[in-house]
Specification:
Layout (H helix, E strand, L loop, with lengths): L1 H10 L6 E2 L16 E4 L8 H19 L4 E3 L2 E5 L4 H12 L7 E2 L4 H7 L10 E5 L2 E4 L1 H10 L5 E2 L4 E5 L2 E5 L4 E4 L2 E3 L5 H4 L7 E11 L14 E5 L4 E4 L8 E5 L17 H14 L7 E12 L14 E4 L2 E7 L10 H13 L20
Helix pairs in contact: 1-8, 2-5, 2-8
């Protein structure tokens, strides 16, 4: 998110500088790794549909400018037991979108999924929805593309901020800069940089594994979808084997709360057991041995306590106590795909005093920041 904001500000000719102590590819934080899911319709909130469309246009524009492939089209299957909240909410969001016609289709039951993609072995009465307008975001390539044009503006140091009457002071181990405004997109460290937000945030440890498929052809890109399954042991998400590394699968349920500076890098067999068991039950073609392991951090917001429509969405807003400080809280497991759109929102918040982010993402949904 910080890279996208800096990229957007540079495109607008703004004198801006970024601070980041982590190199591209660093395993801490939430932006590392080869891939993330891009989905147009999101069961979490209908507010994300417009954001998805804006981000899609942004990714395609960045592809054209960088000469890199960033998005690979791939259908997305969401499935779960009869009455699954994930499937129902995805269908409702798709139906509510003005451009939804023809985008959502395909199998609607477990039996139809198994017939369409033989790698699956879902219960026949499960509910399902398929989004054709989905894809694989090549995350690390995308991050590098965002940074390519602004590399000389990034200071590779951690920073703290201090509001002063003259401006926002940004201090590192060997830099002391006075800025007109500061955008803080510090991922799991957001609460440490802006302590007023810490009570609203919960950082969780999420497990990811790559599994060697028992039937590689059945789970290859083009013959197998991205998937999100609401099973009895876990909600899992995963990708076709598009890199030759195996099928990447993670647990989407929130894991244990951790400090961003106090977690180990490799998931244990016990942590990956719900994922492994879910694969064995529902996608036996992918249920081979674990060949790689990875950690990811979700930075989750608490449920809103002022507005019933506030939910647990991102925070993208100015601090009411000091509008010169702009904050962005993604990624709570589904933020990376929105990066170009959120970068533009953050740039607009910095440059246009009249601009406001979508109501769903504002701080005034929390009683501590109610206006």
């Amino acid at each position: 998110m910080g890279s996208a904001a800096l990229h957007a500000l540079a495109r607008r000719g703004v004198d801006a500088i970024g601070f980041d102590p982590l190199i591209v590819g660093e395993a801490r934080g939430s932006s590392h790794g080869s891939c993330r899911i891009w989905r147009r319709f999101n069961f979490e909130s209908p507010a994300y549909t417009a954001l998805s469309d804006e981000a899609f246009a942004g990714w395609r524009a960045l592809e054209a400018a960088s000469g890199r492939t960033l998005l690979r089209p791939c259908p997305l299957l969401e499935a779960g037991p009869p009455g699954s909240a994930i499937v129902r909410q995805s269908r409702e969001v798709a139906r509510a979108a003005a451009q939804a016609a023809g985008v959502v289709g395909g199998p609607t039951t477990g039996a139809e999924v198994n017939a369409a993609w033989p790698a699956f072995r879902l219960p026949q009465d499960w509910d399902a929805v398929v989004q054709e307008s989905a894809g694989i975001l090549l995350a690390q390539t995308a991050l590098q593309a965002l940074r390519d044009g602004v590399a000389d503006r990034i200071v590779p140091l951690a920073a703290r901020i201090e509001a002063t009457p003259a401006g926002v002071r940004v201090v590192t181990a060997d830099e002391d800069i006075l800025a007109g405004q500061a955008i803080v997109a510090a991922g799991p460290w957001l609460g440490a940089v802006v302590p007023a937000l810490a009570p609203l945030l919960r950082v969780t440890r999420q497990t990811v594994g790559w599994f060697r498929p028992s039937r590689p052809a059945a789970v290859a890109l083009g013959d197998f979808p991205i998937f999100l399954l609401e099973g009895p042991r876990a909600v899992i998400y995963g990708f076709p084997d598009f890199e030759g590394r195996g099928v990447k699968v993670g647990q989407h349920d929130h894991g244990p709360t951790v400090s961003p500076d106090d977690w180990t890098s490799a998931p244990t067999d016990a942590e990956l057991e719900p994922v492994r068991a879910s694969l064995a039950a529902f996608i036996p073609a992918a249920a081979g041995p674990i060949v790689e392991r990875e950690m990811c951090l979700y930075t989750n917001t608490l449920a809103a306590d002022v507005r019933p429509d506030g939910g647990e969405e991102f925070i993208i807003d100015r601090l009411p106590s000091d509008p010169r400080i702009i904050v962005a809280s993604p990624c709570s497991g589904h933020g990376a795909k929105f990066a170009p759109a959120i970068g533009e929102i953050l740039a607009s918040l910095a440059l246009d005093p009249a601009f406001e982010a979508d109501r769903a993402f504002r701080l005034d949904r929390f009683s501590a920041f109610a206006r």
